[in-house]
Design brief:
This protein is an alpha+beta fold. The chain is built from 7 helices and 18 strands. Strand 17 and strand 18 form a beta hairpin. The chain is elongated and about 95 Å long.
Length: 320
């Protein structure tokens, strides 16, 4: 659970408007964190009721009195239901899948409803105004907070608002929140295709990470264009899928995706080209390494290597 709020945090105007900053762990929306004010429709109804009440007083009309008191009573009851629609919810941060620059980041946020009653029409509003409305039944409901990811690096979820106007839309209850969560944004891959030439490996220099023809090394999923002589037919006969056998040897070819292979290009253009090379090498099932000015990743292949290389490109130049 989150740490208790201090007295200053509880009553400050900044907390009322913007929340208390990034928080880790589940956040409980207790009675000090849920605010409520009338909407435009609520204010309009209040003005109409005042006008009807003045007319009832002027003409001493009992039916007009009854109408005013009935509608005012409904409005007062709706205050409680609107406020309770958020009260007691627990909010926690979920995982966010990495995206490429130019795409939308999807921050997954969990809403825990520990009661047996559903919470209808709960709206999650992002800092840029994008809104997701969902009904929160008893238990856990995962919702997505969408944010544009214009550039590489770490994108923070930022402050968002959990709000509701249920049941009549006369009042709006809300709670400003900011969870300690971010999304990794990879560079947008360059449109140019084509890998750099591979280099002969040398003993002790990572050549075992390449693809030779001496010793069996591993299996990987079959890709179009792979030699049929390297297909693992026994695995296919056992209905385990079509796989290609990889071999190692001292004369294997190393594929290095190196920063120095792109001289004269701006930093972001180099990163975009390297990102394209990583995706192409991974799609071809090749063993490849990545060399940047601040770090080097030894040749390997598979989803883990792809993730390591793309993460290094996304965080290039970031201060620790």
């Amino acid at each position: 659970m989150a740490a208790p709020l201090t007295l200053r945090q509880r009553f400050s105007l900044a907390r009322f408007l913007r929340g208390i900053g990034p928080e880790s762990g589940p956040v409980l929306l207790d009675r000090r964190r849920v605010y409520i004010l009338p909407t435009r429709q609520g204010l309009l109804l209040g003005g109409v009721l005042v006008a009807i009440l003045l007319g009832a007083i002027n003409y001493d009309n009992a039916l007009a009195y009854a109408l005013v008191f009935l509608l005012a009573g409904l409005g007062v009851v709706s205050i409680l239901h609107t406020w309770r629609n958020l009260l007691g919810l627990r909010v926690e941060a979920g995982r966010c899948q990495a995206v490429f620059a130019g795409e939308q980041a999807r921050f997954v946020i969990g809403l825990h409803n520990d009661t047996d009653e559903a919470r209808p029409a709960v709206a999650l509003t992002a800092p840029d105004g994008m809104e997701t409305v969902s009904d929160v039944a008893a238990g856990l409901r995962w919702v997505e907070l969408l944010r544009p990811a214009p550039q590489r690096g770490r994108l923070r979820a930022g402050r968002f608002t959990l709000a509701t106007r249920f049941p009549l839309g006369l009042f709006r209850a809300w709670s400003p929140l900011e969870l300690a969560m971010d999304c990794l944004v990879y560079p947008a891959p360059a449109p140019q295709r084509g890998l750099p030439p591979a280099q002969p490996g040398t003993e002790g220099s990572g050549g075992d990470g390449g693809q030779g023809h001496d010793d069996f090394a591993a299996l990987r999923p079959y890709h179009a264009g792979d030699s049929l002589g390297h297909v693992h037919w026994k695995a296919l006969a056992r209905e385990q899928g079509m796989h290609t056998k990889l071999f190692t040897g001292e004369q294997a070819q190393e594929l290095w995706l190196a920063w120095e292979l792109l001289p004269g290009l701006p930093v972001e253009d180099r990163l975009a080209r390297l990102c394209r090379w990583v995706l192409e090498a991974d799609a071809a099932g090749l063993a490849y390494g990545l060399r940047l000015p601040d770090r080097s990743i030894a040749p390997a292949f598979g989803p883990a290597q792809r993730r390591r290389c793309l993460e290094a490109l996304a965080l290039y130049g970031e201060k620790p």
